[in-house]
Amino acid sequence: MAQRRVTSPVPRPPLIGVTACIRTVDGSRTHTVGEKYIRGVTEGLGGLPLLIPALGDDLDIGSVVGCLDGLLITGSLSNVEPHLYGGEPSADGTLHDPARDATVMPLMLTALTAGIPLLAICRGHQELNVVLGGTLHQRVHEQPGRLDHRAPETTDLDIQYGPSHAVTLTEGGLFQQLNGGERRLTVNSLHWQAIDRLADGLEVEAVADDGTIEGVRVTRTESFAASVQWHPEFKVRENPFSLALFGAFGDAARAYAGTRRRT
Predict the structure, then answer these.
(1) Domain residue limits at 233
(2) Three-point CA angle 185, 191, 192, nearest 5°
């Protein structure tokens, strides 16, 4: 009688939560995620993206986090509500997304507490600082001595997301390791807000030449938890540092998934 061969199941790719924003599309309130973030997950780390709607208190954050192997906090055209960090009221016409604020803030805290790997981008970088107690510049280009970090006025995405300015990576830091030991890196720039007072529990990983904090790492968790002010998800496979950053995030998510399967 032939002996039946037993094969081990193939581990599924890590499940990565991707945060959504609220937009009005054809008159309807819509939850949206830019495709570049989804492809950052699929192409940058080989993960399965799970889009998380901006439902605020109507979303069971604990149940969502309990399903995830990693969390990607996206960028957005909207600004964090200034009352969340004790800031002055925003200038007229500033775009806000209170439903996103009400979703991402508790989601991020719950994920960090659970030790889930986290990567935050642009608005997510700012949200991470706020949720841990830091503050923001609402219009960093109006601060004395600062560069204009806003996106070029063009619809050509290759120009919008093209190289804009250099950052210096912290000596001996995670980002320097991911950058092959080099301390200089050229990044894109598409933001108005920026970190003002750095939150406790964050360590600077990258700084622009004008002093703007462009990358941080969370020190309160042993898991991968970092954020960047720029957009590494755009054409992620064409940029060595972006690919290394998403790769490190993916490795951490796989390790976390493996731990969950053993418990």
Answers:
(1) 15-261
(2) 130
First and final C-alpha spacing in the chain: 37
Q: What is the pLDDT along the chain (263 residues), one digit of tens a residue?
A: 455 554 445 578 999 999 999 999 999 999 999 999 999 999 999 999 999 999 999 999 999 999 999 999 999 999 999 999 999 999 999 999 999 999 999 999 999 999 999 999 999 999 999 999 999 999 999 999 999 899 989 999 999 999 999 999 999 999 999 999 999 999 999 998 999 999 999 999 999 999 999 999 999 888 999 999 999 999 999 999 999 999 999 999 999 999 876 55
Please pick, among 81, 205, 214, 233, the residue that the annotation labels catalytic. Answer: 233
Residue 159 lies in a domain: yes
Residue whose C-alpha is closest to residue 87's, from 32, 33, 129, 149: 129
What total of structural domains would you count in the chain? Answer: 1
Q: Which residues pair with 207 in a beta bridge?
A: 168, 213
Crossing angle for the helix pair 35-44 and 240-262, nearest 10 degrees?
A: 70
Catalytic-role residue among 21, 81, 122, 205: 122
Cα distances (Å, whole numbers) of residue 109 to 87, 95, 193: 21, 24, 21
Among 31, 149, 191, 231, the active-site one is 231
pTM for the structure as a whole: 0.94
CATH number of the domain residue 24 falls in: 3.40.50.880
In a domain, residue 38? The reply is yes
In-domain check, residue 108:
yes
State yes or no: is 233 an active-site residue: yes
